[in-house]
Specification:
This protein is of the alpha+beta class. The chain has three helices and 16 strands. Strands 1-2-3-4-5-6-7-8 form an eight-stranded antiparallel beta barrel. The chain has a two-stranded antiparallel sheet with strand order 9-10.
């Protein structure tokens, strides 16, 4: 009886593993495959209404028609470090009919002459699907779905303590920037050219990024309060 039970248990586990393979294959292909754009447009401004978040959650997102994105992504347990980020994205449609959005970043190295060299790379990949109120996201190789509702810049202004006047948002503190795709009024990233250069960041001179930063740090780093690139 024990042998029969063991055989049945093994068969059940094998069946479960077989059922999981198509999703795993879609996730793997989405991370490494060539661009296969979805015919469904996900362009828009979205935000979460959840009150608790986990590592990897995206809590605010702006998918722009030109291919740029702005988002706030959670890092570490209980979203201890929410980081505004921007770069470009593309979409992937798997053979199983799943649509994915791939968020890009870049790495920074120095060549033999000491010059900074940037190399684009995928930061992370999420399966994406439409809902009645917006979209939902599932990070590849996970089962957790996070729902984001469609929103407006005006709504993000007032929801984060700003004052909207004819489409222009005044945030509640001098150190705050209004970045709808990052959630609304956010603390301005540090701006210090010396600290940026010393930490191998890319100083943008007079042109800030879509998150109001003047120092671009790339994958695995963020522009901290001192204006230096710090490890996430």
């Amino acid at each position: 009886m024990r042998a029969t039970g063991l055989v049945l248990a093994i068969a059940f586990l094998a069946s479960c593993a077989a059922e999981a393979k198509p999703e795993d294959a879609s996730d793997a292909n989405a991370e490494a495959g060539a661009v296969q754009a979805s015919t469904v447009s996900f362009v828009g401004l979205y935000t979460t209404h959840a009150t608790t978040h986990q590592n990897g959650d995206v809590t605010a997102l702006d998918l722009q028609a030109a291919g740029s994105y702005v988002r706030t992504r959670c890092y570490h347990a209980s979203c201890a470090l929410p980081v505004p980020e921007t770069d470009h994205y593309d979409t992937y449609l798997s053979s199983a009919g799943k649509t994915y959005v791939r968020f890009y970043s870049f790495t920074v190295t120095r060549d033999a002459s000491g010059n900074l060299v940037t190399t684009p790379r995928v930061a992370d990949v999420f399966e994406i699907a439409k809902t009645s109120s917006g979209i939902k996201l599932r990070k590849s190789y996970s089962t957790r779905w996070v729902s984001l509702s469609r929103t407006t810049a005006t709504s993000r202004c007032t929801a984060t303590g700003g004052t909207d006047a004819g489409g222009a948002c005044t945030c509640p503190a001098a150190a705050s920037d209004f970045v709808p795709g990052a959630g609304g009024c956010i603390v301005a990233p540090g701006a210090n050219e010396t600290n940026c250069d010393a930490s191998n960041g890319l100083w943008t001179d007079d042109d800030s990024t879509l998150i109001g930063a003047y120092c671009e740090c790339g994958f695995g780093r963020y522009d901290d309060a001192s204006g230096a690139c710090a490890a996430i």
